[in-house]
Design the sequence.
C-alpha cells in the first residue's frame, strides 16, 4: 500500500520531466500532434545542437553558473558566520537581533522589490550581476541563518569550550570546530541556494538589461513568441539546463548522507 | 608550574547559587582533588578557572597574577573534560596538535612535541586514527595528551575517569598519579568518587552545595571531618552519627538519648583534640564514628565504649569484609567486620562497642566538629601530621598515599 502510494506520487512527479525529455526529442510537427505520443518515433537528437545554437546557450549557462556559484558560496559563508554568534555567544540584545532577523521572513519579496531596485539603481549596479550576488554575501537570507543556527545549537558545546581552553579564538573555533562538524548542513544550504539562484527568473529579469549578460532562465524565456515558441528546442535547452542541478543533487546527497552517518556513529 | 589562588568566588545561575564565597589555594605542583556530590558546584569551579564561565564576584590568580579578567586563551591552563571533548573530525595527531597550532607554534616543534606526548602516553600507533575509532581508555589518553602538550601552568580535570569501566579506571588512576608525579603539574581534579579522591589527592577539598567544607589531606578529611556534611560524604559507608544529649562531668562526658541508656566516656580516652570540648560540651552533640571503629557483640573492642544494644538488620558481604547494618534506637549504624568473623543473623541483638579514640563529636546545632586541630599546610610533600590516629583498631580502608618523589 505504502509502495503503491509512493509509486503513484513518483509517477506524478516524473511525468513533466518525462514529457520534457520526450518533447525535446520530437520533430517540429510531432510536438503538438493529436493524439500526443510519449515516445517519439523518430528521436531528433539534433534538436539539442540546434537548440543550443538558437540562443547563446553556453554563454548564458556560464552567466548562470557565475551568479549561482558565487552567490551560493556567499550565502553559505555569510549565513554560517551570522548563525554562529546567534547559536553560541551570550551577549545582551542578541535575542532581539535574532527576532528581527526572523521577522524579515514574514515580509513577502514583492514588498521589497521596488525599494531594493531603487537602492541598487542608486548604487549604479543596474545592469550588473552585483544586485544578484552581493546580498548573498551579506547574510544570505534569514531562513538560512535560522537553519544553520538550529544546527549549530545541536553540536556539543563542550567541543567549543575545549577549543577555547586550548587557546583558540572564536574565529578559529568557527573554522576548525564548528564548520567541519556542520558540513552536511552547510552543503544542504549551499545546494538549495545554488538551485534557487540557477532557476531564478525574476531577479535577472529586473536587474539585467543586456542580452549578453542574460542567465539561462531569461534566455529560455526568449523562445516564447520570438520563434512562435519552438517547444521542442525550448524543452531541449530546458533539459540541458536542469542537468547541473540534478548532478549537484546526486553528488551532494551522497556527502550529506555520509556526513549524517559519520555523525551518528560518533555517539 | 604554578600556584593557583582562588578567593571569594561566587557564581549564580538565575536563582541557583552554584558557588558561594569559595576560596582555595593550590600549591605549586600539588594535586588537589575537589570532591563533592553531583551538582555541588565543583565543575563550576573548573569552568571559572578555565574561563568558560565568568564569575559574579571573586578573584582567580595564577602565580600572583589575576587571570579571571583574561580571555581563556591567555590564562594558560588546560582542561580534561569528562566527555573528553575530542574533536571528532580530526585525527589523534591533529587533536594533540590543536593547542599548539592555536598558539602558532612552529610546524617542526608541533610535530616534535606531539610525538613526545604520544610516546609518553603510548599513543604512537594511533596518531592517524579518528577519536571515533579509539577505545574509551585510548580516548581518555588523547584528552590527557591534548592537555599536557601545551605545558600549561595548571591542569584542570573534570571527572576524567568517570566514563571508564571499573577495571580500567583503577589502572588509569594509578597511571594518572604516576604521570602527575612525573610532570609535577599543579592540578585541580574534580570527582565525586571518594576512592579517586583518597588515592590521588595530596589534599582533598570537600564541596557541597557551592560551599567549601574542608580542605586537608585525605587522611585528615577521613579521620577528622570538619563537619557532618564531610563526615556523611566521605567514607563508604559514611561515618555513623548519633544525636545525643551531653553533659560534662569533669573528666568524663555523659551522653544519652531517648530509647538509649546513657553512657559515660572518659575524656582521657578520647582523641586529644576533643578533650577541651568534652569537658565542656554543648547540650546536644552528634557523636560520629567510622564503621571500622564499631564492634557488634562479643568480644567487642577492648577499652571501647558500650553504647547500647542494637538489632542487626542487614549484612552486606564484600568478599574481604562485611558491612553489618544494625539499628539502635532510631539510628541505623554500620559496622565493618572481617569475613572470617561469625556471620551475624538479621534480627540478632548485639552489644555495640565503639573505640573511644575513634569517636568524633559535632555540635548538633551547627554541624561543625568540636575537635580542635591545626590544618595541614598546603604543601604536598609535607609529612602527614595527624593529631590522632585510629590507634589499636583495625586497618582503615583508605590506603595511605604511596611515597612521593619530589615534584618540584
Sequence:
Amino acid at each position: 500500500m505504502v509502495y503503491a502510494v509512493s509509486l503513484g506520487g513518483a509517477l506524478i512527479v516524473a511525468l513533466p520531466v518525462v514529457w520534457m525529455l520526450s518533447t525535446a526529442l520530437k520533430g517540429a510537427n510531432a510536438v503538438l500532434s493529436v493524439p500526443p505520443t510519449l515516445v517519439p518515433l523518430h528521436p531528433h537528437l539534433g534538436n539539442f545542437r540546434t537548440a543550443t545554437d538558437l540562443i547563446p546557450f553556453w554563454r548564458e549557462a556560464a552567466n548562470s553558473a557565475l551568479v549561482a556559484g558565487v552567490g551560493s558560496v556567499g550565502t553559505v559563508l555569510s549565513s554560517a558566520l551570522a548563525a554562529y554568534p546567534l547559536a553560541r555567544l551570550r551577549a545582551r540584545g542578541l535575542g532581539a537581533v535574532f527576532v528581527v532577523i526572523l521577522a524579515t521572513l514574514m515580509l513577502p519579496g514583492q514588498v521589497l522589490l521596488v525599494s531594493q531596485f531603487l537602492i541598487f539603481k542608486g548604487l549604479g549596479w543596474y545592469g550588473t550581476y552585483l544586485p544578484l550576488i552581493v546580498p548573498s554575501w551579506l547574510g544570505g537570507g534569514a531562513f538560512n541563518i535560522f537553519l544553520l543556527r538550529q544546527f549549530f545549537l545541536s553540536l556539543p558545546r563542550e567541543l567549543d569550550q575545549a577549543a577555547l581552553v586550548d587557546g583558540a579564538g572564536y574565529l578559529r573555533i568557527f573554522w576548525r570546530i564548528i564548520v567541519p562538524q556542520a558540513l552536511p548542513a552547510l552543503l544542504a544550504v549551499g545546494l538549495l541556494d545554488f538551485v534557487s539562484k540557477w532557476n531564478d527568473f525574476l531577479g535577472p529579469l529586473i536587474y539585467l538589461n543586456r542580452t549578453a549578460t542574460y542567465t539561462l532562465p531569461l534566455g529560455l524565456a526568449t523562445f516564447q513568441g520570438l520563434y512562435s515558441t519552438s517547444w521542442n528546442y525550448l524543452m531541449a535547452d530546458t533539459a540541458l539546463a536542469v542537468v547541473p542541478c540534478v548532478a549537484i543533487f546526486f553528488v551532494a546527497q551522497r556527502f550529506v548522507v555520509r556526513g549524517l552517518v559519520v555523525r551518528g556513529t560518533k555517539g | 608550574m604554578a600556584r593557583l589562588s582562588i578567593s571569594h568566588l561566587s557564581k549564580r545561575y538565575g536563582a541557583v547559587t552554584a558557588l558561594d564565597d569559595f576560596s582555595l589555594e593550590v600549591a605549586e605542583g600539588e594535586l588537589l582533588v575537589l570532591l563533592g556530590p553531583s551538582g555541588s558546584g565543583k565543575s563550576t569551579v573548573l569552568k571559572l578557572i578555565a574561563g568558560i564561565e565568568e564569575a559574579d564576584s571573586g578573584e582567580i590568580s595564577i602565580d600572583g597574577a589575576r587571570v579571571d579578567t583574561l580571555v581563556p586563551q591567555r590564562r594558560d591552563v588546560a582542561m580534561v573534560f569528562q566527555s573528553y571533548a575530542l574533536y571528532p573530525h580530526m585525527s589523534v595527531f591533529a587533536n594533540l596538535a590543536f593547542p599548539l597550532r592555536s598558539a602558532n607554534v612552529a610546524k617542526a616543534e608541533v610535530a616534535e612535541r606531539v610525538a613526545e606526548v604520544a610516546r609518553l602516553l603510548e599513543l604512537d600507533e594511533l596518531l592517524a586514527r579518528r577519536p571515533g575509532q579509539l577505545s574509551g581508555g585510548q580516548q581518555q589518553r588523547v584528552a590527557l595528551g591534548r592537555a599536557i602538550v601545551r605545558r600549561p601552568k595548571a591542569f584542570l580535570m573534570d571527572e576524567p575517569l568517570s566514563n571508564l569501566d571499573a577495571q580500567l579506571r583503577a589502572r588509569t588512576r594509578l597511571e594518572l598519579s604516576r604521570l602527575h608525579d612525573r610532570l609535577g603539574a599543579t592540578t585541580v581534579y574534580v570527582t565525586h568518587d571518594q576512592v579517586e579522591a583518597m588515592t590521588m589527592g595530596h589534599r582533598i577539598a570537600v564541596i557541597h552545595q557551592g560551599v567549601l567544607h574542608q580542605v586537608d589531606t585525605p587522611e585528615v578529611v577521613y579521620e577528622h571531618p570538619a563537619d557532618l556534611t564531610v563526615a556523611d560524604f566521605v567514607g563508604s559507608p559514611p561515618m555513623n552519627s548519633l544525636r545525643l544529649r551531653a553533659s560534662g562531668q569533669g573528666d568524663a562526658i555523659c551522653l544519652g538519648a531517648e530509647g538509649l541508656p546513657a553512657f559515660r566516656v572518659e575524656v582521657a580516652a578520647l582523641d586529644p583534640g576533643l578533650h577541651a570540648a568534652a569537658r565542656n560540651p554543648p547540650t546536644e552533640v552528634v557523636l560520629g564514628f567510622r564503621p571500622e571503629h564499631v564492634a557488634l557483640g562479643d568480644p567487642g573492642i577492648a577499652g571501647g565504649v558500650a553504647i547500647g544494644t542494637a538489632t542487626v538488620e542487614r549484612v552486606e558481604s564484600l568478599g574481604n569484609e562485611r558491612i553489618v547494618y544494625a539499628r539502635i534506637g532510631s539510628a541505623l549504624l554500620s559496622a565493618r567486620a572481617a569475613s572470617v568473623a561469625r556471620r551475624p543473623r538479621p534480627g540478632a541483638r548485639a552489644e555495640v562497642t565503639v573505640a573511644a579514640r575513634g569517636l568524633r563529636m559535632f555540635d548538633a546545632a551547627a554541624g561543625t566538629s568540636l575537635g580542635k586541630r591545626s590544618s595541614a599546610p598546603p604543601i604536598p610533600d609535607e609529612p602527614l601530621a595527624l593529631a590522632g590516629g585510629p590507634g589499636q583498631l583495625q586497618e582503615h580502608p583508605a590506603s595511605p598515599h604511596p611515597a612521593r618523589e619530589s615534584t618540584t
Notes: The interface with chain B takes residues 156, 158-159, 161-169, 172, 176-177, 180-181, 262-263, 265-267 of chain A (CB under 8 Å). Chain A has a mean pLDDT of 86. Residues 30 and 59 of chain A are 29 Å apart (CA to CA).
